[in-house]
Each structure stands twice: as structure tokens, then as C-alpha cells.
Specification:
The protein is mostly helical and about 170 residues long. The protein has ten helices and no strands. The N and C termini lie far apart (about 35 Å).
Length: about 170
């Protein structure tokens, strides 16, 4: 089980850090809910004639990636607020606002849909934690450098360093 989790993290993170290089998207680009859903329809992840029932079914199936695509921004923010609170109760502090993470997750999923790596991302929980760890915003008492090194393989951290030098410097101080 741990092996498959590690593979999922590796695939997701590799997808995430290469995304802006491999897909012609400005790093400042922020997809709207309509653009995210439209791309999911275009890429045949969501049927064009979907309704609310389709997304309720995805929730029942625990397909958090597709369920996320169908949520309103309000619902995404509420879910992330609850997730951040759960982490807080478990002793992990996440300081950034749920709005930030909702936008980052939307952008990450949009890029995954464009690049063809959408299904390699695991689930919303993995996407959220990966973004928080990369931002140095997942304070579970561990040194952020040690946490990042335990969460991602060395070769992926090297890509992270090249792709996000400011984030890397904030964590590693180099």
C-alpha cells in the first residue's frame, strides 16, 4: 500500500512541477469554475449532459478529483476550511486561507486535464497536502525541509528547485 502511495505522490508531484513548462499556461493563469468544468467535459472526464446527480455519484464513489470539478467555489472553500481544521486538531498548522488552496487546486487540476495527468494526481487530499508542503505551509512540527524530503523523492525536489526557486529558497534557505 505504501509503495502505491509513494508512486501516486511521485506521479502527482512530477506532473505539478512540470505543468507550466509542458503546457502553454501562464503561471498567473487562474481558471474559472466554468473553464475547469468545460475542460473536464472536453477531455471526456465529465459527460456533456451531466447534472448534479453525476457529481453526487462521484462523491459516493469517493472520486474526489471529479467531485471537486463539480463543486461551487463556496463549497470548495468550506471543504478546505474543514480539512484545515481537521489538520489543526491533529496538531498540524496550515496558515494560508482556504481560498488560496481552492485556487491552487483548481489550477493544478486544470493543468492535469490539459497535460493528461489528471488521474495520476490521486485525490484532493494528496493535492492539497502536496501544495501545502511545497509552500512550506504544513507545520506538523517537522522541519519543512525534512518534511519536503520525506514527502518527495530527491530528483523531484531538484525539479521543484528549478521550477519554483522562491518556494525552494523559503524552505531550504539556499
Amino acid at each position: 500500500m505504501k509503495k502505491y502511495f509513494f508512486i501516486a505522490i511521485l506521479l502527482f508531484f512530477t506532473s505539478y512541477v512540470h505543468a507550466f513548462q509542458a503546457v502553454d499556461i501562464n503561471p498567473e493563469f487562474q481558471p474559472t469554475q466554468e473553464e475547469l468544468l468545460g475542460l473536464a467535459i472536453e477531455k471526456d472526464f465529465v459527460p456533456a449532459d451531466h447534472g448534479e446527480e453525476y457529481f453526487r455519484e462521484k462523491i459516493k464513489e469517493k472520486d474526489t478529483l471529479l467531485a471537486w470539478v463539480g463543486l461551487s467555489q463556496e463549497d470548495k472553500i468550506k471543504i478546505l476550511g474543514a480539512l484545515i481544521e481537521i489538520h489543526r486538531q491533529e496538531g498540524t498548522i496550515v496558515e494560508r486561507h482556504p481560498v488560496y488552496y481552492a485556487k491552487e487546486i483548481d489550477k493544478t487540476l486544470y493543468i492535469g486535464l490539459r497535460k493528461g495527468t489528471f488521474r495520476e494526481m490521486g485525490g484532493i487530499g494528496i493535492v492539497f497536502k502536496t501544495i501545502a508542503v511545497m509552500d512550506g505551509d504544513f507545520d506538523n512540527g517537522e522541519d519543512p525541509k525534512v518534511l519536503l524530503e520525506s514527502w518527495m523523492p530527491v530528483e523531484v525536489i531538484e525539479v521543484f528547485k528549478q521550477t519554483y526557486p522562491k518556494k525552494y529558497k523559503r524552505i531550504f534557505g539556499e
